[in-house]
Structure formats: structure tokens, C-alpha cells
Amino acid sequence: MKFVTAIIKPFKLDEVREALSAIGVTGLTVTEVKGFGRQKGHTELYRGAEYVVDFLPKVKIEIATRAELLERVIEAIEKAANTGKIGDGKIFVTSLEQVVRIRTGESGPDAL
Amino acid sequence: MKKLFASLGLICALGSPGLALAQDAAAPVEEAAVVEMVEAVAAEAPVAEVAPAETAPAEEAAAPVPDKGDTAWMMVSTLLVILMIVPGVALFYGGLVRAKNMLSVLTQVMAIFCLIAILWAVYGYSLAFGDGGGLNWAIGDLSKLFLAGITPASTAATFSAGVVIPEFTFVAFQLSFAAITVALIVGGLAERVKFSALLVFALLWFTFSYLPIAHMVWATGGYLFSKGDLDFAGGTVVHINAGIAALVGALVLGKRIGYGRDAMPPHSLPMTMIGASLLWVGWFGFNAGSNLEATGGAALAFINTILATAAAGLAWMFAEWMLRGKPSMLGVASGVVAGLVAITPAAGLVGPMGGIVLGAIAGVVCLWGVTGLKKTLGYDDTLDVFGIHGIGGIIGAIGTGIFVSPALGGVGVADYSMAGQVVTQVTGVLITIVWSGVVSFIAFKLIGMTMGLRVSEEQEREGLDTASHGERAYTL
Asked: Dihedral of the CA atoms B43, B48, B49, B52 (nearest 10)?
């Protein structure tokens, strides 16, 4: 089992969700986050006061998936979230040791 | 409790014997005054009804009767000025602070309005518009303490001979001016001032700065009034007066924690936009109402309050666009307020084109006031009360002396010479700066030494909403 964490541009969320549904991903978790990478922040000016906003709003999606689906998941996110401009985000993949469905007590791949 | 006693002691020490007496006796005498007033109304009402029928022609010649149109206009104007304070100034300021201080600003503005309204009735009106005898150049007297002797039949003079308005209307109209002036100062102290200290300051400053300046400029026999100083609706009395107090306050209080290091962006510019718009609408009562009659003079002040304001909003916006790259909402709104401030002393005195030029100048110079000047001097005037009201007021006061010239489309005044009038205007500006500056400095220092001016560092970081008022503006 693999755990995929992707940071994407907020307006790409719907496209990414559709692409993932199409390949059979049955659930994901979304969080609104802020962060910085290579994309520069911007400055805001209020009368004389200038503030540099370093942390830009992004969306973080988290997906737990069977190992055999991993490549297609990565491909789907990569395609759907791509704009070709700086700030498109990143995909992180880690191994997932255990999953438990709380309602039934099932565990392992069956719980996904 | 200790602090309360300290502040009471301060009030007594500073107040004149009459003032101290007024404080002590406030509650019982006020009640008595209300009763007397009611009796007076009851006694006089039938007389007033009968009199016109019996001796109408003789009565008219002897005592002018208020015109219903003038009276209605002045009551609407008073309401408009109140609209400028709550919610106008409150929202304009509130939107500019951080979310954790939103309610503190709203509370400060509303509480000050309530406080000044009462003080105005207790002794303010009498001291501002009474006849002070030997001291009449600076202050009135105490003959109308608790509005003594004023009945629905009492009248106040206007600018036209033989035209009067009900005195209660005049009292209420001027009350709203006193209240907004003190409320404006909040902006210089916001996000760090202790609430109790602010209320004590409001009382002291209203008594020792607002009342004398209002008397000097507007009351018959006042020093600047006699010198021919032109201040149609309160450029010196309201805006320079409050702007200087806010500047002195910002300097004495010191900067907010993290000023210049932490980001302190406004928490809700839509609120600020609503507040600025309410200010603009309410300002028609302020400016056109200051004509005291519903005549062509009021109409001139009215059109000027549109045009000068619009010119200032555009001037600020375009200047900001050129110098800083983007035209901002806060920029347009700030320009609008700067224009309103600048046209205030000139409203009924300059022509529409003069007003446009005056507004445009104010828009650009006030932009400099809140950027260049503020940076150079390094003070933390939280909401730029000095940069907009102080600077805008000075431009307006001096500009009035120039654009009142009939050659520039103004209405002119008797024996007008531009140089002479400008000197008079500058005198008014300087007296106001020094007077308000000294009173503010002493008041802030005294409060600082006795009860403390600022909240604790911990409370300031927490935010005044929860720390001082035990509530929060937004629960999301």
C-alpha cells in the first residue's frame, strides 16, 4: 500500500478529483494549506505599509492506494494539476504500513 | 478600584471647580433638569399655540420663528453626522485593524459617542457657545449647564439676520460634531490603548481642547471668529484638532508590538469601504448642514462635498497607481476621506472648480502624509488620523483662504485680500496645532503616570477584543 500526498494549485482540485475518480480511486482527503517553494510570494501594499506574503495558498490532497494503482494515480494527478507554470506543486509518495476501516474493523488492502 | 480612584482624582484635579461640581452633581441635577424641562414644555406649549393667533404681526418682528424647512434640514443633517460616527467611523477604522482588535475599535467609537453626548449636555454646549465674559476669546460660560433654560421655544441664530433654528436642534447638531472629533482620535491609538485610559483622555481632551477651539472658531466673540478665520464646517475645530491629538497620542503611546516587523494588514477592507461610504454620505450633513439653513449656501456646500471628494479619490488613486504600480481600494477610500476633510472648512465658501482643485491637492499630499512623512518621522499612527485628518485639515484650512477668492470662483468675504486671509487661516491652524498638541501631551502624560495608557504586552498580543472586552468579533 502506498500513501500519496500531493500539493496542487487550489483551482486544479476539481480536475484532479475527476481524474482520480476515473481511474478508480475511491476516496481522498483535502486540506487547504499554505507554503512556499520555488514560486515567489507577492507583496501587498496598504497605504504606506508593504507586506511580503511568502506563503501562498495551496491544496493538499492525501490518497491511500494499492501499490499496483500507484503509477496511474501519480500520472492522473500530474496530468490534471499541470499548468506548465511555476507553482504547480509536488507529489510525495511513502509506504503505508497499515489501514483499518473503523466501521467494520477490516484491515490491510481490504480496508482501502 | 485603585485605578478608578486614580482616574477620578485626575479628573477632579484637572477640572475647574465648576467642572468638578458638574461631575459630582451630574446624576441628581440632571434628573431635576429633565423635570423642569418637562414642566417648562407643558407650561409653554399652550402659550406658543395661542400667541401667533393673537399677536402674529408684532411677534414676527420681535422674535423670529424657526422655518420648518430649516428645522427639518438641520435635524436630518444631525442624523447624517451621527451616521458618520456610528457606524461610519467605527467601520472605517474597524476594517483597518487586525481581526483580534475589531470589537475594541467599535466599542471605543460607540462609547466615546455616548460619553461626549452626555458631557455636551452637561457642560460642553454652555462652554463652547456661551458668553465667557472676560475669557470670551477662548471659552464660554456655565450659564447653560445641563442645558438650563433651553426650551422648545428657544432659538439659535444662523448666518442670516432674522433667521433662526430651534436651539435644541443646534445643540444636537453641535453635539454630533464634538462626538465625531473625539471619536476620530481613536485611530491613532488603536490596537494598544487601554480602554479606561481612552475614556479619561476623551473627557480631558474634549474639555480642554475641543471646547476652547470650537469656541474660538465658531462662537461670537471667539478669538479666531473675531479675526475672520474661515472654517465653514470644522477643518480646524474637528480635523486638525483631532489629527494632532492622534499624532501626539501615537508618539506618547509608542509603537505597537511588532510594528514594522510583523505583517499587520487590514482584516476587512470591505468594512472599510462601507465605513468610508457612510462617511461620505454623512458628510453632507456635516458640510451642507453647517450652513444652518436650507438655502443656496447649503446647496453650494453640498455640490462641493461631491466634487472635491471625487477629485481627491481620483487623485490619490492615480498617484498611487503611478508611484506604486497598482490602484488600490484602500487608496481610493483614503483619498475620498482626505477630500472630505479638505473641503470641510471650504465647503460653503469656495466654488465647485476651486473645490475640485482643493480636493485633488489633498488627495496627493495626504498620500504623501501616510507614506513618505510617516516613514520619515517613524511614528505609529495606527490608522493615519494625522496623515489624513491632520494634513488634509491643514490643506483645507489654508486652501480655504485661497479659493474663497471671487477671482477663483469663491464666494468672497468682506475686505478680502488673499495674503491677509491666508495669514489668518495659518494663524488658526497654528493655534489649533499648539493648543491641541499641548493639551493632548499633558493629558496623555498624566494618564500614563496615573492609570497607564497601554494594555500589557500579553494583552496586546492576545488582542484587545478578548483581553479588554471579553468577546470576539468573529467565530468561524
From this structure: 150
Q: In the prediction, which pLDDT does B450 show?
A: 97
pLDDT of residue B3: 55
Residues in chain B, total: 476
Which of A32, A44, A46, A52 to substitute to test the interface with B, most B CBs within 10 Å?
A46
Percent share of chain B, pLDDT over 70: 87
CB B255 within 8 A of CB B380: yes
Instruction: Please state whether the peptide bond connecting residue B152 to the residue before it is cis, i.e. omega within 30 degrees of 0.
Output: no
The model's pLDDT over A48-104, given as tens digits with 9 standing for 90+, comes to 888 888 899 999 999 999 999 999 999 999 999 999 999 999 999 999 999 999 999
Test mutation, B97, B256, B324, B364, chain A, max A CBs within 10 A: B324
Q: What is d(CA B265, CA B285) in angstroms, rounded to the nearest whole number?
A: 32
Residue written as grid cell 480511486: A25
How many H-runs (helices) and E-runs (strands) does chain B carry?
A: 21, 2
**How confident is the model over B326-338, as pLDDT tens digits?**
999 999 999 999 9
Angle formed at CA B82 by CA B81 and CA B85, multiple of 5 degrees: 95
Question: Which residues of B fall within a CB distance of 8 Å from A55?
Answer: none
Question: How far, in Å, CA of B229 to CA of B430, rounded?
Answer: 12
Q: CA-CA distance, B363 to B102, in Å (whole number)?
A: 27
> Cα–Cα distance between B106 and B98 in angstroms, integer?
13
Q: Which of B307 and B29 is assigned the larger pLDDT?
A: B307
User: Is the per-residue pLDDT at B38 higher than 90?
Assistant: no
> With an 8 Å Cβ cutoff, are A46 and B265 in contact?
yes
Using DSSP, state whether B31 is helix, strand or coil. Answer: helix
Query: Which residue carries 477643518 as its cell?
Result: B235
Question: CA B287, CA B280: separation in Å to the nearest integer?
Answer: 10
Angle at which helix B418-450 crosses helix B241-253, to 10 degrees, equals 40
Going by C-alpha positions, the residue among B60, B83, B61, B389 that lies closest to residue B235 is B389
CA distance B24 to B440: 24
Write down the pLDDT at residue B61: 59
User: What is the chain A residue with the closest CA to B261?
Assistant: A51
Q: What local confidence, expressed as pLDDT, does residue A52 receive?
A: 87
Spatial contact of B232 and B344, defined as CB atoms under 8 Å apart: yes
pLDDT at position B442 over 80? yes
Strand duo B155-157 + A2-8: pairing: unpaired
Residues 320-379 of B with CB under 8 A from A: 324, 326, 328, 330-331, 334, 370-372, 374-375
